[in-house]
Amino acid sequence: MDWGMKNRFNKIIRPKDGRTVMLAVDHGYFLGPTTGLERFADTVVPLLPYADTLMLTRGALRNYIPPESDVPIVLRVSGGTSILNKNLLHEGIITSVEEAIRLNAVGLAFSILVGAEFERDTILNFTKVIDEAERYGIPVIAVTAVGRDMVKDAKYLSLATRMAGELGARIVKTYFCENFERVVETSPVPVVIAGGKKIPEKDALEMTYNAIQAGAAGVDMGRNIFQSENPVAMIKAVRAVVHENYTAKEAYELFLAEKKGEGKN
Q1: I need a surface site. Which of 125, 140, 191, 259 has the fewest CB within 10 A?
Q2: pTM of the predicted model, to two decimals?
Q3: Is pLDDT at 179 greater than 60 in this prediction?
Q4: CATH number where 52 lies
Q5: Is residue 241 in a domain?
């Protein structure tokens, strides 16, 4: 890697431990006013001190995030369909690399849908973004999206993850699954897990712990943080698992303690 690529990459995956807590709040680009993000700034800004990076769209960045914030930005650059479209995630390029540079992004996020009838479209657009991003030393994160009828198992996720890495992704975001070690071991680049749909806090922390034990480089978590009954307490607990080697039990106890002390910090 050239210096610029190394510098940006190290702002996403921290070199001290090779891990990251990415906060994904890019859901509005296809879901609209997602539960928990209706008043975006009120929810997200208090979480910024505990996130290694923030993944969001250019509109959300410009309108909700204070420019004096020093949290590194991973910019969502794929889209084109909404939750109302039967071909959800048939995504194209929605933001240029020039725009990402203007917004001082350290990385770009692009969804690919391996196994869909339109997989070729998403993959070729993905590689176009990589070609241009590499020219400017910006890492691209492949988001291995899963369609409604696709199984999130190690066979499928390792296929999608390996493809993304070989096509030029510097980091891959995918789902946690049984035998996740296979997904990590067969990937040429670091793998972070998606939080997925909202589940109980205890279960989300257990998933985070198991993923880290299986070799994940961290999480890119959204709904399991911003839809938590106490988002700040939850991101602190997730961070404790990722960066401080807490067990799931210890992290859940931290979550309960932070929740009990709400308003005192």
Answers
A1: 259
A2: 0.93
A3: yes
A4: 3.20.20.70
A5: yes
